[in-house]
Amino acid sequence: MTPAARLSAAIELIDTIDKERIPAAKALKEWGTAHRYAGSGDRAAISGLIWDVLRRRASSAWLMDADTPRARVLGMLKLERGMDADAIAALCDGARFAPEPLTDAERAALTTRSLKDAPAPVAGDYPEWLDGYLAQVFGDARVAEAVAMASRAPLDLRVNTLKAKREKLLHSLAHLGVTPTPWSPVGLRIDLSADARNPGIHAEEDFIKGAVEVQDEGSQLAALLSAAKPGEQVIDLCAGAGGKTLALAAMMQGKGRLIATDHDKRQLAPIHERLSRAGVHNADVRTPKGETDTLADIHASADLVLIDAPCTGTGTWRRNPDAKWRMRPGALEVRLKDQVEVLDRAAALVKPGGRIAYITCSVLPPENGEQIRAFVARHPDFAVVPPAQTVTVLWDRAEEFAAATLQSPEGLLMTPRRTGTDGFFVSILKRNAS
Fold first, then answer.
1. Which carries the bigger pLDDT value, residue 290 or residue 355?
2. b/e 98-122 (16+ beta carbons within 10 angstroms → b)
3. Cβ atoms within 10 A of the Cβ of 396, count?
4. Please, which of 64, 122, 174, 194 could form a disulfide with 75 given CB 3.0 to 4.6 Å?
5. 284 with 257: CB under 8 angstroms?
6. Which residues contact 293 (CB under 8 A, 6 or more apart)?
7. Which pairing describes strands 179-180 and 155-159: parallel, antiparallel, or unpaired?
8. What is the model's pLDDT at position 221?
9. E strand residue ranges, 361-423
10. Residue 195 has what pLDDT?
11. Which SS3 state, helix, strand or coil, does residue 155 take?
12. What's the pLDDT score for residue 393?
């Protein structure tokens, strides 16, 4: 397919997503099935266009002064891809499979309009109803923070230190262009261009042998901040597919007791194969069965309970820009209730002197600082460990990393703008020793 034909396909797909109100991933899959002639490079390029349009949905429409699929695609080409009106016009020449030529109004918009006077939700490309929440946490910097949250994310990998060292994998995966992550001592990064296909990590020998896992650097750092140690009893209360469970197991060096569970057994399904591939032998996966409490035998005995809390996922907009436009206020209310339940459950599992690591992939205050303040009010035998103490001896760049985060009395917040990671909030809560 020519670049112009790919552009036409992107406009068609955005129109389908709008009219049928379906997730972008589903629309892309169905389009690929119906257009077998499109090669993998074509599909990757069209996917890149779609995700970039979703990242810049509001600002592109504002720039073009029109909220149509075509307008959003054209506006994105200027805002995200940095193309000028002439370069865009060259793609839209009306030839076979190419978009229709630019109208005078479109060329004028691409030439003269900017985001200078755009409202914050438009300039930052986020739903208007979230503006108050983002202003609460970021203030006047919310547009800059949101723009970074709309950027394209790299592909991050975590070295499984039970099986390998980062130096070795930097050599064996050099053909993928890996570099060390800026903060995580066990991370590797692959930067991806706009039209790049995701590298076939799952086919790499290092992945097959369990030496490496796909995990955002922010998620790696959140696990590190829990300070899990060899010999401890650790519970991963919302283990899901096991990303942080695997990180905890490596930190524990295979020593101690690691229990992984989740309220949704479907989420847990991949964890068994992942643990086996990673060479983890001290993990006990407890799959829920009916109303039975999977942790009924644990009574205030855990050294650490890690909560990868159910949340709105606002911190992962770089990877899932479709989600931010489909998110509704009701989803936040549901998540807040889920977080209260899991925090209270964790409190009963922690021994005196033990700790809870509360983690969200959200930047919204109600899910983060406000949730922690409410928890401490309900459980006065717990206190927040100040973020400066949380990182003290964890790794050589820990203090520098902490300084890059947005700190509060309740914890620290990573963001794409500040730390180059997904958005993660981490709070460490310690139970009084007596």
1. 355
2. bbeebeeebbebbeebebeebebbb
3. 9
4. 64
5. yes
6. none
7. unpaired
8. 95
9. 382-384, 406-408, 411-414
10. 67
11. strand
12. 59
Cα–Cα distance, 59 to 42 (Å, whole number): 26
Mean pLDDT of all residues belonging to the chain = 93
CA distance linking residue 69 with residue 52, whole number of Å: 13
Helix ranges, 242-391 (H): 243-251, 265-268, 271-278, 321-326, 329-347, 369-378, 387-390
Confidence of residue 65 (pLDDT cuts 50, 70, 90): very high
Instruction: State the amino acid at position 227 in one-letter form.
Output: A
Checking if the pLDDT of 194 tops 90, the result is no
Helix axes 69-79, 104-112, angle to 10 degrees: 30
Q: Give pLDDT tens digits for 169-181.
A: 999 999 999 999 9
Q: What is the pLDDT of residue 392?
A: 66
Considering the candidates 92, 238, 311, 361, report the single residue annotated as catalytic. 361
- Which residues in 40-69 are b (16+ Cβ under 10 Å) and which e? eebbbbbbbbbbbbbbbbbbbbbbbebeeb
* CA 327/CA 323 separation, integer angstroms: 6
Phi, psi of 371 (to 5 degrees): -65, -40
Cα–Cα distance, 147 to 80 (Å, whole number): 11
Q: How many CB atoms within 10 Å of residue 270?
A: 13
How high is the pLDDT of residue 193? 77
What single-letter amino acid sits at 267? Q
> What pTM did the predictor assign?
0.93
d(CA 132, CA 291): 39
> What is the distance of C-alpha 384 from the center of its chain?
25
Cα 72 to Cα 74: distance, rounded to the nearest angstrom: 5
**Which tokens in the block code for residue 128?**
């208007």
Sheet holding 179-180, edge to edge: 179-180, 187-190, 155-159, 212-214
What is the spatial distance between Cα 307 and Cα 172, in angstroms, rounded to a whole number?
34
